[in-house]
Amino acid sequence: MRLTPVRFSRGSTASIVAANSRITCHGRLGKIDAARKVFDEMHEHTVVSWNSLISAYFIKQQPQYARNLFERMPKRNTTSYNAMISGYIKLGHLDEACAIFNSMPERNVVSWTSMLRGYIQAGAIKEAELLYCRMPEKNVISWTVMLCGLIQDGRINDARKLFDKMPVKDVVARTSMVSGYCRVGRTAEAREIFDDMPRRNVVAWTAMISGYAHNLQLDLARKLFEVMPSKNEVTWTAMLTGYTQAGCILEAIDLFNRMEEKSVIACNAMIIGFGQCGMVTEARNVFDQILEKDDGTWSSMVKVYEQNAFQLEALEMFRSMQLANVRPNFCSIISVLAVCASLAIIAHGKQVHAKMIRTHFETDVFTVSALITVYVKCGDLAKAKMIFDSFEGKDIGLWNSMITGYAQHGLGEEALQIFHDMHMMGMIPDEITYIGVLSACGYSGMVKEGREIFRTMSMNAMINPTAEHYSCMVDMLGRAGQVVEAFELISNMPVEADAVVWGALLGACRIHKNLEIAEIAAKKFLQLEAWNSGPYILLSNIYASTRRWEDVAKLRQAMSLRSVSKSPGCSWIEVDRIVHIFTGGYIISHPEQQIIIFLLERLDCLLKESGYCPDFSFVLHDVD
Q: For the chain, what are the domain ranges?
């Protein structure tokens, strides 16, 4: 945008007004140097000139220059103070805004409302309520800002009381209540307010349709969508997202095909929808057809590959994203870290770690937790602990990641130390914490400590043990050879044992060759998951180890009749940043089969030469 030059004449009101207008216009366009040049060339400044340049500096996110200008002002009015307060609030500098507000000789409703907005934006709802009660004058904006604050805080009933007291209810206030009710699942009350609205704009319609879709009331959403007088891309996308979240992919496809103009947002929603239904090829087709991809497009495709176990494709997509000079976002970072953890590939994990530092994601607790998981899965516990120790503001998820990491590597004492540190820091453990620490006790043979933690769990943390906690206890007792006690624990469980619990007991029976309890555990397991090959394989190997070949044959026959088959095992290793994948039973199809067979034979010879005598009783026998 090119602005017409202004000729300044000393004392001319018209030229001053024109110059002030140019400062404002340059400021809104982010051209702070041009705005300052106009200001400096003025022969005379009014308070509007100063205020306009102050606002321009805040738009450019240069609060220090705005403050210097404010301090130099020969004369200030209420608008000057309001410009400073509003600017600081928009940048999240609440303390500085408070200082300006408290120094004001006179305040108007704009001053009070700006501070109210600042407190709510910072999540300081109690301070906002106190300020609201002190306000000498309120307008519809003040009422609406406070209303939105209560809704944001999850206090929908208090918001309704305030809404009912409002002398004037505009479309923004009514729409806020519609969104608030929908957010907590009270769509009937949201619809009442929507129906009572004297005037509805596209935002109000979209809020109601989105609310229905978010709560999976898709029939109601679609009926409202069809009678909506004017739809925008947000409305189409809301309806589309509702279908994809509910797994109604055919309806989503139909709606997507009806769209005259398919926005990037709608395409991204469709990519995610296809991914949730396992339709990876279809998701990629939509991705390839988007001409102008945004960061959401790339991260959606990375997520689709990751959640459908296309790990290598996810890594390649993330690499292509960087080559396209697209800055990774939160979703893509989390997805690619999950892939690195799943494959245990440290080199790629370190690359993502470096990218996190460059893009300032290392300050986000969720990405840091995912990063710790990567280092844990790759066996670099020292690095994981270093990241954990250096991160301030640890949440429960971060503590759990570290406890679980130590548990997975059999480091029970280290896991318990983190657990105790948690208590010292005043952090209250959750269900996941206890699963992690009980697992650590099981892997490390710390039965006494595990029993005590399990006993005190419900008393100290007010957590009722779930099937997962009992599974940890069964596994711990089973590893220690106390199979009978583990079986008795299951028999006395206050909750119904699931397949994981019976699987843990069956695994213990295999190790300690307790055939009687193994048969009971396998029967219970198969009643819950008849399609699962695990209990067949474990019980078959127990039978085989005791030479009960007839029973082995019966199990094979049962598997065949029920069309149960064992999925081949899979492993991988990263060498020189290349991931090599190996599938059990398929060596002959591997491109490097000759080298693999040669090395296996060589290892077999070395084992025999060293005097090793293999114990075949624990070999998983072929039951396919």
A: 570-618
